[in-house]
Amino acid sequence: MATGPAQKHRVSYYYHEDVGNFHYGPQHPMKPHRIRMTHNLVMNYGLYKKMEIYRPSRATFAELTKFHSDDYMEFLQRVTPDNFEELTRSQQKFNVGEDCPVFEGMYDFSTLSAGGSISAAQNLINDKSDIAINWGGGMHHAKKCEASGFCYVNDIVLGILELLKNYQRVLYVDIDVHHGDGVEEAFYSTDRVMTVSFHKYGEYFPGTGDINDVGHGDGKHYAVNFPLKDGIDDSTYKRIFQPVMRHVMAFYQPEVIVLQCGADSLAGDRLGCFNLSLQGHGMAVEFMKTFNIPIMMLGGGGYTIRNVSRAWCYETGLAVGEELDDELPYNDYYQYFGPNYRLDIPNNNMDNRNSREYLERMHMKIVENLRNMPAAPSVQMHAIPSDLDRNLFESDEEEDPEERITQSMSDMHRIPSTELSDSEDEGDNRRNHRDYGRRSSHLVSINPRARPVNPTVARLFTIDSPATSSFTDEDRDTDEQPRPPRNGLATHHHQLPRFARPPPQPDSSVSSTVGLEDEAENGMDVDESDTLSQNGAWISNGGQRAPPMMANGIAAGETTRGDAGEDALHYETGR
Fold first, then answer.
1. pLDDT value for 88
2. Are the CB atoms for 64 and 158 separated by under 8 Å?
3. For residue 134, which of 45, 53, 21 has the smallest C-alpha distance?
């Protein structure tokens, strides 16, 4: 996949004002306050004029448990600093305690983080933007049943699961100094998500991400890990990142990218050991934009909070195509950025332990792994779940009787009259009387000269009895020509798709052995007095012989009449 000049992108930005209110505890390096600082810089640089800003809704319990286990989520809901001593066994089970402490509002913080990423994914699916940003997300260490690395809920996995409803292939790129183990583990055995991580490896948390970790089963060769050593600088990082990502894009051909922009790979980070400047870190964002496919940008690590907010503000500017002035505008946290009050984050004098020979060897292994990958995977056609209003089913709690229900909220629960089926409103005063007339135009008469069809195949179609009272001679348009199914598909009245292929022709010398009991078991409307002739045609209890359908299941011809003047048998075709 060739790169090109980055075009103007539509950008959506997700921020909830409560996300900066949470605190992991004294001396803990993770500070959610950094997200509020980032937002304040974004606003004071005027970037809000270049993008759509959204306030995400919290993720529901049902959304969280699309990946995480129910008992783990119930524990996060239940545990508080006041009762955590009573839940010691559960703390050990779910790895909550030291790196992932129990703090006030822990579950609420996780629902905000996950809600932003799920909403960003839905925004891309609905084609409302080309880039969706959630700096409150990027919690890439959380596992299905346990917390890890300051992360309780893996919003990235939940966002990718949402994207997979619409996209066949999702590429996840992680530039955090720590390996994105939680995301890789979640998709280790599938080819629908490729994970790529550039991280410090060797006696460093989480201890995973070896060059030979390439996936398993269907996901083999769809996990890419580039292990790095201390001190990598801008030029070296660019020299490995861009060629690897070109190969990945060419081999995998993703339809959407999820980019985790962990800022602990910046120079001078409290827990990091890389030596990237502001421009070196932002290079990854700028380069991935050149492929001109949808991108979801997320936060992640970063523990020198003044640099985290600088980097994420700068990369927000890259997303909208705005060059930011190096001199910081005055903002609510201006004193944090002293003494120079500049946007830039320079490199330091840290030694780069990544030799050219080592990097070339790692690069060649990754390219060899990609060459062993089959062609870009795809999935069978399937129905895409509709995007419902997430707030509509957000809470399982009882409704507050004091809460005011507006007319618009009430209308959301009303069923339009057009949604009523034919059986729900019958009689002379039925409101949907016109539906019957339209329905009759899709009925096709059975041709008495049609070739016999295998009775087993005939069971797949719904045959209305001549005694059906819903259709009268006045309703039927005798001049209507039979309509073939559209797109090569025929459907019955339950709207289940079925290919209209010619069924095999039976030997006319062999009589059918299909009994009425079998027909009843297969859901066909058969009267006890109906019989089946040798050539597979039904003879109704009214004395009317119903000729069999044509081989393609869509017969055309003249309307037949019985001696008593009953209507001819009909069946419905796809509309």
1. 83
2. yes
3. 53
Strands (E) in 165-305, as ranges, are 170-174, 193-200, 223-228, 256-260, 295-298
Q: 141 catalytic, yes or no?
A: yes
User: What whole-number distance in Å separates Cα of residue 198 and Cα of residue 459?
Assistant: 58
Which of the two residues, 238 and 92, has the higher pLDDT score? 238
Assign residue 573 a region (left: φ > 0; alpha: ψ between -120 and 50; beta: otherwise).
beta
Query: What value does the mean pLDDT take over residues 431-456?
Result: 40
- In angstroms, the Cα distances linking 166 to 125, 160, 294, 467 are 6, 10, 12, 45
pLDDT for residue 557 is more than 50: no
- What is the pTM (predicted TM-score) of this model? 0.69
Cβ proximity of 528 and 517 under 8 Å: no
CB-CB contact of 277 with 344 (8 Å): yes
| Dist. CA 254–CA 249, nearest whole Å | 7
| 487 φ/ψ sector (left φ>0, alpha ψ -120 to 50, else beta) | left
Q: Is the model's pLDDT at 428 over the cut of 60? A: no
Burial class (CB in 10 A: 0-12, 13-18, 19+), 259: buried
Sheet strands (E) in 85-183: 131-134, 170-174
CA distance 176 to 194: 17
Instruction: Give the Cα separation of 95 and 61 in Å (integer).
Output: 20
Torsion angle of C-alpha atoms 17, 20, 24, 30, degrees rounded to 10: 130
Q: How far apart are CA 420 and CA 432, in angstroms?
A: 8
Domain ranges of the chain: 11-371, 435-575
Structural tokens at position 26 = 């004294």
- Percent pLDDT > 90 in the chain is 61
First to last CA, the chain: 40
Specify the pLDDT at position 544: 44
Residue 64: closest CA among 53, 72, 56: 72
Tokens matching residue 554: 């869509």
Residue of 16, 68, 141, 221 marked catalytic = 141
pLDDT at site 285: 98
* Strand pairing category for 170-174 and 443-445: unpaired
pLDDT tens for 96-150 read: 988 999 999 999 999 999 999 999 999 999 999 999 999 999 999 999 999 999 9
Amino acid at 496: L
The fold adopted by the segment(s) 11-371 is: Arginase; Chain A (3.40.800)
